[in-house]
User: Which sequence fits this backbone?
């Protein structure tokens, strides 16, 4: 999967003649609803030879400023790559992009590549509050730019009559319902430990202030520490107001090259 900056692609036009099926969203805590969208993008590309696939996402949540993510950007890339997507395109949600109208954004998409299909959820919208384009308006907006684009609006995926969403995942994590998170996302809840740890003979300690993800309630959890080597170590994780501490066997500490811990 190739990783690109959105505006770099728009300005360079290296994909301007490439037919692409794409989707746009934050896709935080990649879950079953997102999976349905990615699979539809892939299905379209497979049935239209020569068409590539792209996921366009954001460095920050445009809907909620300062919102802690379920996943880090690195984890989001990893999960989306597993679906066989060709291009992962990142929008740095800065002041410039926040002032773009929905129609202007559509025109940027058509400048960036040859948009063949767009797959979005029912609640999709883009542009400033006064100039938003909703999912149902996408096809018409593309037509206004002189482009005929297949638009697919995916119905919300439900779990026991509850709408599956990134917001629901955050709430589950904050309540400590990690089994629920696994059920909706298809994988264990993961914390990406990217900062340097304080290491002693039997533990690793991280400041919670260095973790830019939603954390479960304070307490002790059984966990799996995943290493760059691909090996995993069973461990115990304790989270309190100031730190996350991983207790493990003394013999394993020297071999640590930490990446991720799964709760």
Assistant:
């Amino acid at each position: 999967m190739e990783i690109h900056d959105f505006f770099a692609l728009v300005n360079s036009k290296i994909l301007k003649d490439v037919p692409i099926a794409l989707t746009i969203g934050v896709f935080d805590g990649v879950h079953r609803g997102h999976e349905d969208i990615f699979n539809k993008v892939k299905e379209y590309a497979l049935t239209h030879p020569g068409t590539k696939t792209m996921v366009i996402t954001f460095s920050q949540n445009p809907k909620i400023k300062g919102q802690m993510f379920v996943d880090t950007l690195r984890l989001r890339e990893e999960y989306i790559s597993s679906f066989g997507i060709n291009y992962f395109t990142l929008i740095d949600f800065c002041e410039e992009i926040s002032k773009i109208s929905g129609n202007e954004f559509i025109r940027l998409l058509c400048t960036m590549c040859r948009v063949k299909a767009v797959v979005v959820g029912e609640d999709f919208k883009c542009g400033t509050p006064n100039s938003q384009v909703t999912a149902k308006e996408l096809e018409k907006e593309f037509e206004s730019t002189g482009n005929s684009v297949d638009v697919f609006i995916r119905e919300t995926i439900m779990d026991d009559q509850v709408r599956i969403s990134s917001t629901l995942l955050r709430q589950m994590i904050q309540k400590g319902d990690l089994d629920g998170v696994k059920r909706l996302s298809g994988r264990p809840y993961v914390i990406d430990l990217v900062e340097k740890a304080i290491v002693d003979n039997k533990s690793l300690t991280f400041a919670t202030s260095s973790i830019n993800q939603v954390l479960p309630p304070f307490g002790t959890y059984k966990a799996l520490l995943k290493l760059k080597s691909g090996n995993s170590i069973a461990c115990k994780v304790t989270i309190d107001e100031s730190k996350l501490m991983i207790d493990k066997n003394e013999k394993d500490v020297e071999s640590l090259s930490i990446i991720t811990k799964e709760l």
Observations:
- The radius of gyration is 20 Å.
